[in-house]
Design goal:
Length: about 200
């Protein structure tokens, strides 16, 4: 089983965070357009609560505005063709820590439905292989219970967690080239690189 994180691994929020933060009037237009730039600006300004509320808005009511990272759907189709099952496993609270009580699990499932992954027989991802765990420990346990052979995540600190299941190959999805990839993990800058690391060569 190939396990894949959801936020910032499948879903690309960079431009959406910037656009919504500007439209909500919480950052100046001159702020960098990445999610990290928006976060860093708000934290430097001592506005952690605004950052928390913005996350709830983006991950909830506005998630439909975020695209998938390029190449993700092609990766799923190739996995299907080559007989490699895939599961989505994410650490995601049911509701935001601040702001309106959006159902973040329902919003994320709705985003996947909008993307069409459940309707395309060439992809083969089914709703029963999508897991949103309210606690990090639940995510770690789910990866173990699914017997994942590989897991792809954007957070190096999660991949390096002492509780990460032993024997699971770890791939750090790092499209911004942060340089934070743990020494015992592989780095992939995009989904073509992920495919090369896991499936090798060119599509069959």
């Amino acid at each position: 089983m190939i396990g894949i994180d959801f936020d910032n691994t499948i879903v690309c929020y960079d431009d959406v965070f910037y656009q919504i933060a500007v439209s909500e009037g919480v950052i100046p237009i001159t702020t960098g357009r990445s999610k990290g730039a928006v976060r860093d600006w708000l934290r430097a300004a001592g506005r952690e609560e605004d950052w928390t509320a913005l996350q709830g808005l983006v991950y909830g009511a506005r998630i439909h505005r975020a695209p998938a990272f390029p190449g993700f759907l092609d990766f799923l189709r190739r996995c299907r063709t080559e007989g490699q099952p895939v599961a989505v496993v994410s650490h995601k609270t049911r509701h935001p820590f601040a702001g309106p009580p959006y159902d973040l699990h329902a919003a994320a499932r709705g985003w996947l439905e909008q993307l069409g992954v459940f309707d395309d027989p060439a992809i083969g991802l089914t709703p029963d292989r999508v897991f949103f765990e309210p606690a990090k420990s639940g995510k770690l346990n789910r990866i173990a219970s699914l017997s994942c052979s590989v897991f792809i995540d954007d957070l190096p600190e999660f991949l390096s967690d002492p509780g990460f299941p032993v024997g699971v190959r770890r791939i750090h999805f790092d499209p911004h080239a942060t340089g934070d990839t743990p020494a015992d993990c592989q780095r992939a800058g995009d989904w073509d690189a992920v495919a090369g690391l896991i499936l090798g060569g060119t599509p069959s």
